[in-house]
């Protein structure tokens, strides 16, 4: 028995999320069908975490057990020829049987992208939230440090969350402001805002609720210091709305020890 670990990128626009659903059309369903076609085995893959409908991934990791003797270097090409154009396997590693994509993960990073220019970017519209109204980007940036550390993130969790604990640790929260796509002498263009959040794990809709709250701060409806009061409230109604899914991307998943010797160089090159 072999344990194969893979990294996959996907545009989630046309899918009902990563995890298998009764209605089908998920990333997991399509990958499992492709593996079955390739090996003849009924394979169940296990991902580092689920992504909701419309959410994308640049660094999703999954693993599966197989009896197949296919050489490691052939897996990516063999699967990609059987996958649609919006799903691409980029790396394959053979890992110990004890490795688990979700339980072995140490840190995850999500990126949320906001296009704050006047007009939609037609080339990136599937992976950006378009917000043409004026935003106080400095205030948004000032609010991020309040999220760092270990907190009960109930205020930023879906009301439908089934987790026993909403305590999570956020290691990094940063805002990158790219003005390279702003038109010259057009003051309504504010550029593209990328918000990166790295943590031990994330609750259902956690990143999107944080973004919805940040947008209210950017719009002047809240102050940066309100973020600490929202956290302390431990009440979903204290936070802002849930931002749309299309701006969210699972950016990277980091591991220690089990993958260190086999794929550290690949993981570093993808950051």
From TrEMBL:
GO terms for molecular function: tRNA pseudouridine(38-40) synthase activity. The keyword Isomerase applies. It catalyses: uridine(38/39/40) in tRNA = pseudouridine(38/39/40) in tRNA. Transmembrane segments: none annotated. Its EC number is 5.4.99.12. Keywords: Isomerase, tRNA processing. Gene3D superfamilies: Pseudouridine synthase I, catalytic domain, C-terminal subdomain, Pseudouridine synthase I, catalytic domain, N-terminal subdomain. Coiled coil: none annotated. Substrate binds at residue 110. Residues 8-101, 146-256 form the Pseudouridine synthase I TruA alpha/beta domain. The active site is at residue 52. Belongs to the tRNA pseudouridine synthase TruA family. Formation of pseudouridine at positions 38, 39 and 40 in the anticodon stem and loop of transfer RNAs. Homodimer. This is tRNA pseudouridine synthase A.
């Amino acid at each position: 028995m072999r344990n194969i670990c893979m990294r996959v990128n996907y545009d989630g626009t046309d899918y009902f999320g990563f995890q298998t659903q009764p209605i089908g059309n998920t990333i997991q369903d399509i990958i499992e069908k492709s593996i079955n076609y390739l090996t003849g085995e009924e394979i169940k893959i296990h991902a580092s975490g689920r992504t909701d409908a419309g959410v994308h991934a640049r660094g999703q990791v999954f693993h599966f057990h197989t009896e197949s003797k296919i050489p490691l270097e052939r897996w990516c090409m063999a699967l990609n020829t059987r996958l649609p154009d919006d799903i691409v396997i980029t790396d394959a590693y053979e890992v110990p049987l004890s490795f688990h994509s979700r339980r072995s993960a140490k840190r995850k990073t999500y990126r949320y992208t906001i296009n704050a220019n006047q007009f939609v970017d037609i080339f990136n519209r599937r992976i950006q939230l378009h917000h043409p109204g004026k935003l106080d980007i400095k205030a948004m940036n000032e609010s991020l440090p309040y999220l760092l550390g270990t907190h009960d993130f109930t205020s930023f969790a879906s009301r439908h969350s089934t987790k026993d604990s909403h305590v999570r640790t956020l290691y990094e929260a940063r805002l990158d402001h790219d003005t390279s796509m702003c038109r010259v002498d057009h003051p309504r263009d504010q550029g593209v805002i990328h918000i990166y959040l790295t943590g031990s794990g994330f609750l259902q809709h956690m990143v999107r609720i944080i973004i919805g709250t940040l947008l209210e701060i950017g719009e002047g409806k809240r102050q940066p210091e309100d973020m600490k009061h929202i956290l302390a409230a431990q009440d979903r109604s204290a936070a802002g709305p849930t931002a749309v899914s299309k701006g969210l991307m699972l950016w990277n998943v980091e591991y220690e020890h089990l993958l260190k010797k086999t794929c550290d160089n690949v993981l570093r090159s993808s950051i």
